[in-house]
Amino acid sequence: xxxxxxxxxxxxxxxxxxxxxxxxxxxxxxxxxxxxxxxxxxxxxxxxxxxxxxxxxxxxxxxxxxxxxxxxxxxxxxxxxxxxxxxxxxxxxxxxxxxxxxxxxxxxxxxxxxxxxxxxxxxxxxxxxxxxxxxxxxxxxxxxxxxxxxxxxxxxxxxxxxxxxxxxxxxxxxxxxxxxxxxxxxxxxxxxxxxxxxxxxxxxxxxxxxxxxxxxxxxxxxxxxxxxxxxxxxxxxxxxxxxxxxxxxxxxxxxxxxxxxxxxxxxxxxxxxxxxxxxxxxxxxxxxxxxxxxxxxxxxxxxxxxxxxxxxxxxxxxxxxxxxxxxxxxxxxxxxxxxxxxxxxx
Length: 346
Prior knowledge:
Oligomer: single chain
Number of helices: 12
Order of helices and strands: HHHHHEEHEEHEHEHEEEHEEHEHE
Largest sheet: 8 strands, mixed
CATH class of the largest domain: Alpha Beta
Radius of gyration: 19 Å
Distance between the termini: 30 Å
Number of domains: 3
CATH architecture of the largest domain: 3-Layer(aba) Sandwich
Strand order of the largest sheet: 4-3-5-6-10-11-2-12
């Protein structure tokens, strides 16, 4: 019997989070950066052939796959507290700099010895990195809207470190939570980012930026999705934007089946939606998240009642699920295993 992830791949809903590669004990799975062709018989996805052709039958991959696990109907049900926050040193950050400041402070306190995140080069190409000190955290500043299999580096991290923090989008934080629950408890903190969709690197930088926005990649200093538009800021001080609907259709196909906007499986979720400009919205979702944030709370300015608040977050959750839930449930009918959108609290 092939592992469940084979069906996820065959039905083109693999999120390419990298969890299966991180936990496979024989290294049978290799998630390529682009992961555009999700065919279990295609060597562009698996370096050693189809996972089930060399699989030894432990099926650990299925226990950490976010698609196999499915989604939660009410993704705000586990929010213990919601507030606005801004790092006292947020210079160079996308918004309030909460994720960056949180990691830095936890490194300095010795609460974590490794963090997994994404950096980028001058060409806006993403690179998954293992961060081991507060001084290295700055290399991951700013949001990247292109995808990379972040969790693949956990195989190395588990060998070298004992207190690991993960920063990722919903599919990655969901998988990280499953890894922590089923495979390895060295993940001590999961920080989730709000995410409507992401894009393959070449689509973003060879199609969306040059053709739709008519901007040169080398001129970009910042990108962001906000207020119904995709914005690109350039070195000359110019601001370029297009309606999100003009670029959303170019998102990775798995994103059109995703029903998690706020990283429901994270310990702490961080975004900009629901908070004033220059601030982050912060969702404390677990006892673990509460413990770690309270350790470093003095690093932040806190807005206990940010506007526009959860009402806007709920609106965007609804927008993301409007078509995605139907698409995902259609795919679920093709699976030989049971998954879907379940009514429970994480």
